Amino acid sequence: MAPAPEQRAVTPRGWCPSLFEPMRAEDGWLTRIKPPRGQITALQARAIAAAAPAGIELTQRGNLQLRGFAEAGLAPFALAMQAAGLASGEAGIERRRNIIAPPLLGHDLGIAPNAAAWLEALEAVLADDALAALPGKFGLALDAGGALPLHGVAADITLRLDAGGAASLHIPGAMARGAAPGHVATLIRAFLAVPGARRMRDATAALGAAALIRAAGLRPEPPMPEPPAPRAIGLLPGATGFGLPFGQMGGDELRHLASLAERAGPGALCITPWRAILLPGPSDPGLLSAEAGRFITDPGDPRMLIRACPGSAGCASGGADTRAAAAILARHPRPPGLLHLSGCAKGCAHPGPAALVLVAQPDGRYALVRDGRAGDAPARRNLSLAEAAAELER
């Protein structure tokens, strides 16, 4: 059973919220929906849109994060989402249910044939109460190929299926072939035995990646190079992709996408980890053209290479309104690569490295990091937004 409202745990700052464990933010409470198989129906989309009090964000895990709840609205919303088939009834399972699925699973014939079975097996692994201590940010990814392989997607454990369905297991610093779901379960138990580890990179730093792979019962190999992320915007094989500026939309946009999904064919909305929503069905250039003013429909749009948290508009830690700054900087020329605007040094919107990072200082000015993370030592400090824009052009 889900916890009663008065028993609901509150996720501490710095942790990922879940449906039954929301987090207080500057603009109200925020909570997350983790769509099963990474997809929602048009009916579910309308239910989410109707209940959303403010903005809806796409996360890097392919989740929907809803902001602006009053505390009294959290329990009814959680129960409604559970009734809609969008959540487990157990708070602990819902917290651990962090799996990035192939975005077009069930719609792309190029996806490995055993992908659905693998996804069910991984869900069963994470549902085991023996893993109750698993941190809320710990996540898995299942890359099954097809038109949109999960390249460039960060996860603690990634399973990659080849065209024949054989699986390789990847963690930071090592990989292994011939993986089965039992190996994943054993690896997670080995991770949990590492004192103080919150993410897999903590465990690999403590024990070594090869030792953890061996603890799972597999033979370690050097990691393979990570290919670039695929293009998830525009006309795709068997789908049309719509990008969201800085990963956010309102309820009206989600309702509109639900209507488009029904027009496109199966009425499904596939949530990706790339700030884009896919509508399976025959590609329609006319539809894409008609929606260019509402969504990002050009894969070359500079906003798709910007990551920005809400900043001071939604977080007490934010030193500046980073999304407003991102909208301004999107119109300025800058070198190729990802630009990350972070409201503070935590770097929640993009924990990985970026070519350029602007970190808001408490006084509203910015520090600049090149080829690093938000928490790295900056190359410049105390920049106004205009000075930062000029610095990005160099």
TrEMBL record:
<dbReference type="InterPro" id="IPR045854">
    <property type="entry name" value="NO2/SO3_Rdtase_4Fe4S_sf"/>
</dbReference>
<protein>
    <submittedName>
        <fullName>Precorrin-3B synthase</fullName>
        <ecNumber>1.14.13.83</ecNumber>
    </submittedName>
</protein>
<keyword id="KW-0479">Metal-binding</keyword>
<keyword id="KW-0408">Iron</keyword>
<dbReference type="InterPro" id="IPR051329">
    <property type="entry name" value="NIR_SIR_4Fe-4S"/>
</dbReference>
<dbReference type="InterPro" id="IPR005117">
    <property type="entry name" value="NiRdtase/SiRdtase_haem-b_fer"/>
</dbReference>
<keyword id="KW-0004">4Fe-4S</keyword>
<dbReference type="Pfam" id="PF03460">
    <property type="entry name" value="NIR_SIR_ferr"/>
</dbReference>
<keyword id="KW-0349">Heme</keyword>
<keyword id="KW-0560">Oxidoreductase</keyword>
<dbReference type="GO" id="GO:0043818">
    <property type="term" value="F:precorrin-3B synthase activity"/>
</dbReference>
<feature type="domain" description="Nitrite/Sulfite reductase ferredoxin-like">
    <location>
        <begin position="26"/>
        <end position="82"/>
    </location>
</feature>
<dbReference type="GO" id="GO:0051539">
    <property type="term" value="F:4 iron, 4 sulfur cluster binding"/>
</dbReference>
<keyword id="KW-0411">Iron-sulfur</keyword>
<dbReference type="GO" id="GO:0046872">
    <property type="term" value="F:metal ion binding"/>
</dbReference>
<dbReference type="InterPro" id="IPR036136">
    <property type="entry name" value="Nit/Sulf_reduc_fer-like_dom_sf"/>
</dbReference>
<dbReference type="InterPro" id="IPR012798">
    <property type="entry name" value="Cbl_synth_CobG-like"/>
</dbReference>
